[in-house]
Amino acid sequence: MATTCAPCGKTVKNSEKSIICAGKCRRLFHQTCLKLSDDNYKKYCSDNAQKWLCRREDCVDAPNLKDLVAVLTKKIDDSTTSLKKEIADIIASQTFISEQYENLKSELSELKERVNDVEAREAPTMEFKTELAEIQQYQRRNNLIISGIPETTNEDVFQRLFDMAAALKVDLLASDIDAAHRIGKKTDTRPRRVIVKLTNRWKKEQLLTANRWFGKTNKRTLLTSDINYMGSPTKIYIDEHLIPMMDGLAKKCRDLKHQDKIVSTFVRDCKIVVKVKKEDRPTHIRSEDDYYKLLLSLQ
Questions:
Q1: Where are the alpha helices (DSSP H) in 50-61?
Q2: Apex CA 212: angle with CA 259 and CA 239, to 5°?
Q3: Are both 10 and 93 inside the same structural domain?
């Protein structure tokens, strides 16, 4: 009978817990070498102990081995069947996605052709609209639109303009003004704007430059108190008289500036000027098409 432990090769003392393989090898094993818990050790060493077999091939219980192989084989077959189904589903999904991708490519190609066709048809119309807008704007090249000048009954609009020019330190004579009048429906909430048509563009630029200089030196906008109006001071704005389309584009560009998408925008000589970055060259916005191109460049 073996007296040494098969795994460690040391002699098994009587005081040490050990177990003998019930198979053909009849080898001896320390409980600690087998890493058997006390509960499992008792199962094999009690009066009604179960037979313990080591893992040698000639010691394994053949019927139990066959059962184990059968169980493992079934698990492998089940896993293989499930895996085959998953692979089939993946292939079907990939085929569907490929078909959808090809359909989308075809639809996108058709859409591009339609867009190109529409653009080709509308190009002359867009060019005509731009030229017409430039002609209309040119007719306003000597105009200013002024907001915030107080409105009174039987007022002298020319005198209001003279007071405004004096506050800006600009010599404005009656001969410099071709026409001046208010526009829009009269309300009690705020004064109507004043349209001024000057006799020459140089005088218009002089007033605009003086207004910008007033803002820089005084750190504020021109106020009604600056033109000898005794009521509560309100702001006065002097701008170039843009046609509705250009006025809308100027507002959109100012919105881009407020959203920090461009560094600056201003109107000079009835032209909208935009700078996307500080180091960039100025860009002129002449039409809706120019504005949309600007938006695309910001993406």
A1: none
A2: 70
A3: no
